[in-house]
Amino acid sequence: MEENLCPFESKIWLSSPTMHGPELEYIRKAYETNWMSTVGENINEAERMACEKIGCKYAVALSSGTAALHMAVKLAGVRPKEKVFCSDMTFDATVNPVVYEGGEPIFIDTEYDTWNMDPVALEKAFECYPEVRVVVFAHLYGTPGKMDELKEVCERHGAVMIEDAAESFGAAYKGRQTGKFGAYSCISFNGNKIITGSSGGMLLTDILEDADKVRKWSTQARENAPWYQHEELGYNYRMSNVIAGVVRGQIPYLEEHISQKKAIYERYQKGLTDLPIEMNPFDKVNSEPNYWLSCMTIRSEAMCRQIRGEQEAIYISEKGKSCPTEILEMLGKYNAEGRPIWKPMHMQPIYRMNGFVTRQGNGRGRKALDVGMDIFQRGLCLPSDNKMTAKEQEQIIEIIKRCFA
Ligand SMILES: *Cc1c(COP(=O)(O)O)cnc(C)c1O
Asked: If you take atom 14 of ligand 1, which residue's CA is the nearest one?
């Protein structure tokens, strides 16, 4: 007889904020000294610490990662109607800023080794659209992409890379931190990221002039005059000194969060080893992920039938098999939060008419599906909260096992 499992008393989150104490002290200091606007010591310190961690020269603290990406797209000079190559399997905040500027995202399919933009498909895209000069790349779930190959393709075609490291703060590729690969890079302090300010983001660059432009644009593009003088379009995108206090307090805990997330990934890997599944992969030789989210894909032959419409999904349960919908439903029943893989951009109604480039013949005999669609179909994000105990995780593993029983 199998023992009964009870629902978790307090919800197990996908990834929730974890505060440590110093955050509150920095907020309090901002309050007590009345530095409650978008200037102050917390902002300066948070920027300095991010630069020190990532190894970039300049960081500009902004209201969100999306704002940082928007500023990056402005710096790259994207014009209306201009085509821009973008990661396909990512959160839509990666690509929306291209559209804010009137650009047209062309999506590049994903590769199976790291679940990031496929350099082979990128090369093919340049054959189709040689005029493209900007590539927006995102490191998905905290796993670095194939940076050498991607950078080589970009350089050969004279394109600049905007690097979206929103999910990968602290991850490294060949000893170099993500956020250090783009001409313009971005990180995010959104509430579900590996560390958080409750919200916030940063634009990272090695070019002083670009950092200064973003400082100016993000504070309404005021000119150096006694009155409000404007020569350029401005934005209200600067980070608050209160939010920066949280960020400043969190950065020293980045490594601790990464090791907790790594332990979670490894427990899943070990616990699920007998199932017909794979964990989200990474390049074990060249990269060190931040393990932000643990994910898995179910092998094709172990997938029960699952049909997804625009808003809902159905599946037919089958012995020895399962599907993301069934597992997510079961996790939900036990008060644990998983999530489908980020639905690829080329499958999104808003972007369905945009260009999409795949590599031909991925050698896996799945001709009907592109890689992004395949991972979306078979994959899910597992509860990855760093406050989840080993015991709680054991129960989650047991729930997943029962889905395949
Ligand atoms: C969270 C996220 C963003 C946006 O960051 P915000 O701070 O929420 O605006 C951008 N890209 C990716 C890949 C993200 O996961």
From this structure: 166
Residue nearest to atom 2 of ligand 1 (CA): 166
Query: Residues 321, 322, 325, CA angle at the centre, nearest 5°?
Result: 165
Residue 301 alpha carbon to ligand 1 centre in Å: 34
Q: Is 11 exposed, middle or buried (0-12, 13-18, 19+ CB in 10 A)?
A: middle
Separation of alpha carbons 138 and 165, rounded Å:
6
Distance 319 CA to ligand 1 centre (A): 38
pTM for the model stands at 0.96
Distance (Å, whole) CA 382 – CA 339: 7
CA–CA separation, 383 and 15 (whole Å): 7
Ligand 1 centroid – CA 315 distance (Å):
30
Give the mutation target among 87, 115, 167 for probing the ligand 1 site: most ligand atoms within 8 A of CB: 167
pLDDT confidence bin for 1, thresholds 50/70/90: very low
Q: How far is CA 397 from the centre of its chain?
A: 24
Tens digit of pLDDT for each residue in 273-297?
999 999 999 999 999 999 999 999 9
Residues 6+ apart with CB under 8 A from 281: 112, 113, 114, 115, 143
The pLDDT value given to residue 2: 63
CB under 6 Å to ligand 1: residues? Answer: 64-66, 90-91, 93-94, 138, 164, 166-167, 188, 190, 201
How close is the Cα of 11 to the center of ligand 1, in Å? 24
- Measured by CA distance, the residue closest to atom 5 of ligand 1 is 65
Residue with the smallest CA separation from ligand 1 atom 8 is 190
- Which two structure tokens, joined as six digits, stand for 276? 């017909």
**58-62, strands of its sheet edge to edge:** 58-62, 201-205, 184-188, 160-164, 134-138, 83-87, 104-108, 356-357
Distance in angstroms (rounded) separating the CA atoms of residues 202 and 218: 11
Least-confidence region, from 109-123, 133-147, 329-343, 368-382: 368-382
**Quick one: which of 76, 130, 118 has its CA closest to 98?**
76
State the average pLDDT over residues 100-107: 98
